[in-house]
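Work Package 4 report. The design task specified in the project plan requires that, given a folded chain encoded as structure tokens, an amino acid be chosen for each position. We show below one input record used in the internal validation round.
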């Protein structure tokens, strides 16, 4: 993998300059040739859809879809003490993470506010591969560089592309291209050879379906995308369907459902706080987060099924019987697999119980909704891969 010692671009540091130019990714021409409708997202031109969000969404639920997520940040953190250094920034139990295993975690500010959510893979005794959100990657890199000791090496793999193959038939399609991936279980990863190119492949994703994420040198991204979409199960899928799939899966989107004003407890991400880390502390915001676990949280992220057929979008408010704002919708849309509008919202904890009726206001119009356990569509992760 090509590595660059990280230095944020000037445009990321100088806020007085004109807005930075929208960048292109290695598959830009490939998407356009496939008919992708390109939009600016997280500073890059990316495909929002090909044949339509509804069709692409349902294709992923029944077959396999190829997503380009190369805008995300791929980082390497290494050096003696890297495990402890990462645990000082996040609540994840990385000491217990075995080689080739992946952990979802949260980059926290000093008050326990969420700066980003990310995936951490242990590659060796003191070596980790970290995938962060595209819109926050330069801030993440700056924050990590500021807080990591000088002898911890942080590299940005900025010449790597990242593809995601998602859906119940993803394993069959990928195994024909890259043998051996079927042996991976959910949240496991490893290196694989494809035509002399080293690929970093994990069995993970952001749709709730079985699937894989593939780190590939940008110079080989087109060839790999061609090889994958040559499989009859695979179609290219845009950002629009990615968003509706993750919403049905109950997975939060940073910058919408998560931000520095939310904490792991408020965001209902308590699974990211292991018993050892809860007891030992040593991560930012530990005291506040423990207090919130004991009932001090002022809001909680919940899922909503909205009555009727009209979606309620991000920005709608949750109101009480007197019309006072008491919460907000952070994601919402029509769920193709559910057949109804769904949403995520932050509400007072007293209203977070499943079955609670909620009143929403969007552009002056009232809507009613019911608090519903998430995910809205059951996850279909494959936790045990095929025998090696």
């Amino acid at each position: 993998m090509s590595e660059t010692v990280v230095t944020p671009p000037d445009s990321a540091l100088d806020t007085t300059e004109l807005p930075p130019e929208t960048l292109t990714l290695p598959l830009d021409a490939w998407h356009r040739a496939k008919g992708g409708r390109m939009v600016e997202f997280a500073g890059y031109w990316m495909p929002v859809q090909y044949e339509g969000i509804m069709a692409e969404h349902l294709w992923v639920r029944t077959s396999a879809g190829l997503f380009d997520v190369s805008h995300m940040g791929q980082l390497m953190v290494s050096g003696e003490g890297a495990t402890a250094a990462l645990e000082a920034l996040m609540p994840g139990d990385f000491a217990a993470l075995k080689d080739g295993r992946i952990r979802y975690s949260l980059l926290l500010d000093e008050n326990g506010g969420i700066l980003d959510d990310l995936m951490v893979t242990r590659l060796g005794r003191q070596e980790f591969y970290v995938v962060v959100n595209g819109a926050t990657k330069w801030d993440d890199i700056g924050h990590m560089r500021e807080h990591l000791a000088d002898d911890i090496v942080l590299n940005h793999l900025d010449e790597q592309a990242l593809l995601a193959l998602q859906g119940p038939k993803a394993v069959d399609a990928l195994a024909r291209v890259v043998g051996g991936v079927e042996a991976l279980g959910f949240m496991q990863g490893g290196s694989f050879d494809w035509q002399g190119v080293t690929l970093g492949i994990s069995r993970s994703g952001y749709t709730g379906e079985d699937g894989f994420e593939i780190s590939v040198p940008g110079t080989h991204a087109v060839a790999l995308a061609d090889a994958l979409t040559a499989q009859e199960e695979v179609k290219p899928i845009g950002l629009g369907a990615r968003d509706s799939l993750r919403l049905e899966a109950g997975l939060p989107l940073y910058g919408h459902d998560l931000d520095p004003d939310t904490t792991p407890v408020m965001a209902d991400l308590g699974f990211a706080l292991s018993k050892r880390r809860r007891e030992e502390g040593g991560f930012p915001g530990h005291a506040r987060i423990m207090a919130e676990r004991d009932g001090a949280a002022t809001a909680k992220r919940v899922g909503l099924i909205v009555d009727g057929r009209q979606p309620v979008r991000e920005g709608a408010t949750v109101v009480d019987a007197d019309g006072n704002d008491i919460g907000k919708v952070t994601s919402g849309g029509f769920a193709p697999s559910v057949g109804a509008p769904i949403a995520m919202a932050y509400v007072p904890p007293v209203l977070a119980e499943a079955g609670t009726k909620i009143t929403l206001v969007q552009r002056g119009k009232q809507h009613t909704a019911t608090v519903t356990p998430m995910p809205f569509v059951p996850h279909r992760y494959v936790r045990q891969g095929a025998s090696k």
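DSSP finds ten helices and 20 strands in the chain. Validation will be extended to a larger panel in the next phase.
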